[in-house]
């Protein structure tokens, strides 16, 4: 797996590189000391995972994520624990506190490799593109549904699962948002953020939001924030 380390402190980058050298599955293809340089490297090198500091000069780690359209896995590495909740709100894989402990990093790598293996298996099993009129089978525990794709207004990532919003139902399925994004019609289903895919035909209203983003309200009542980067993409895609 290709990895990029993003941290403004050289010694912190070197320490993490030393720790990651114990894992042959992880190939460090780049490093950056600020968000601007990191965005360029992510575009060019297309890493599978980024190890990302939060507090950096200029843009912080969260602002960096708003600048990238790709969706590599994110492992936050920081000296501060107060950002943990926000980190998982942007669907980060893990959150490591400095100084990084080898056994704690080992847990992260195991989680990362397991998810990668699961997604590769999932991609092999399900690669066929889906049309809006297709009906899909959804199972959550003992409950099952056969639902038309166009009736699904929102897909919401929750860890290794995706919550499917249709009618008054909110079942969880063992799928990745990335895999769904590849199979869905992108003229109808839009990747609003790392955590959400919205059905544009269910949009009831849309308004400008903080930092150049958008806030979308769906007919089912859900509200979804679209990041600045994706907001620009949506405006470009939908403009006359």
What ranges have pLDDT less than 50 throughout 5 or more consecutive residues? none
Give the integer mean of the pLDDT values.
90
- What coarse outline follows from CA principal-axis ratios? globular
Structure annotation, total helices: 7
Count the strands? 15
The figure for the number of domains is 2
Secondary-structure-derived class: alpha/beta
**Which percent bin holds the helix content?**
25-40%
Plain-language structure description:
The protein has 240 residues and is α/β, with parallel strands linked by helices. The protein has two domains: 2-125, Rossmann fold; 135-238, LytTr DNA-binding domain (OB fold (Dihydrolipoamide Acetyltransferase, E2P)). 32% of the residues lie in helices and 31% in strands. The strands form four sheets. The protein has a five-stranded parallel sheet, with helices on both faces. Strands 10-9-8-12-11 form a five-stranded antiparallel sheet, with no helix packed on it. β11 and β12 form a beta hairpin. α2 crosses α3 (61-67). The longest helix is centred in the middle third of the chain and has 24 residues, at 102-125. It is globular, with a radius of gyration of 19 Å. The N and C termini lie far apart (40 Å).
